Amino acid sequence: MPEQGKIHDWRASADEVFRNEYTVLKQRADRIGGSVIDGDDLLSDAVEQLIVQHLRGRGPATHVAAYLTRTMRNRVIDEVRSPRSRVRHFYDDEEFVHADDTNFHVEAAPETRWTREALARLPEAMRTVLVETAVHDRSPGELIKEQRRSPNAVYSQIRRAKHRLRRELLVVMLQEDAPSLCCERAELLPDVIAPHLDDMDPKSEAVQHLSGCCRCVGRWQRFSTIRESLSS
Fold first, then answer.
1. For residue range 85-106, what is the model confidence (pLDDT) as tens digits?
2. Where are the alpha helices (DSSP H) in the chain?
3. Is the backbone of residue 207 left (phi > 0), alpha (psi -120 to 50) or beta?
4. DSSP 109
5. What tens digit of pLDDT does each residue of 181-202 get?
6. Burial tier of 126 (Cβ tally within 10 Å: 0-12, 13-18, 19+)
7. Is the pTM of this model over 0.70?
8. From CA 211, how far away is CA 198, in angstroms rounded?
């Protein structure tokens, strides 16, 4: 059984998510569910699974929105791959791999495209260390042995690569189909993107623009939901 304090922590975290991000989660559920699963049902099932996992003492205490999003995506993937599903052309903005049907087609999510573009903007060494640890699930210890570098050097590179990826992701998001001024200011963003706009230098031209441009504020809010999955 989970400890009482932990139950309180995750309930408080979940309550905050629902108060602040319900609209985003609902839109995300509709988008992910597409024509396969109703968005309301998809989000409801994800919340139910969250509660069950916490009652078993295994649910997340942080990044609840990211957990719910991943749960919804996995549910749709399972449904699409199920023999019961007759869906063969699922035009949603998520990317899935269907092993049995070569004609199965979906469009990549904007988040997936943005992340790939941001990754491509990184120096090769940073890109390699992120792919090895995040995609191939290799431990820093393996890289230390393979690269014959000190632990401090490898851990430092991983940390800097994550910071750089977040910055480049925000740049990509702000510049897509943007006016020239938004593009110019995006290139002036600091090397480290703080969790909140208020935490960044108010004298920065990039931060001033980001805080005052309605279009860029909207992209910042969407970026904030994506960065949860990059904050480990």
1. 433 333 333 343 333 433 333 3
2. 4-33, 39-55, 64-81, 110-120, 124-130, 140-147, 151-175, 180-186, 205-212, 214-226
3. alpha
4. P
5. 999 999 999 999 988 888 899 9
6. buried
7. no
8. 9
Looking at this protein, which amino acid is placed at residue 1? M
Domain ranges of the chain: 4-81, 110-230
Q: Are 118 and 169 in contact (CB under 8 A)?
A: yes
133: nearest Cα among 205, 2, 232, 21: 232
How many residues can be counted in the chain? 232
Residues 6+ apart with CB under 8 A from 230: 162, 165, 166, 169
In angstroms, the CA 222 to CA 227 distance is 9
- Cβ within 8 Å of residue 189, ≥6 positions away: 167, 170, 171, 204, 206, 207, 210
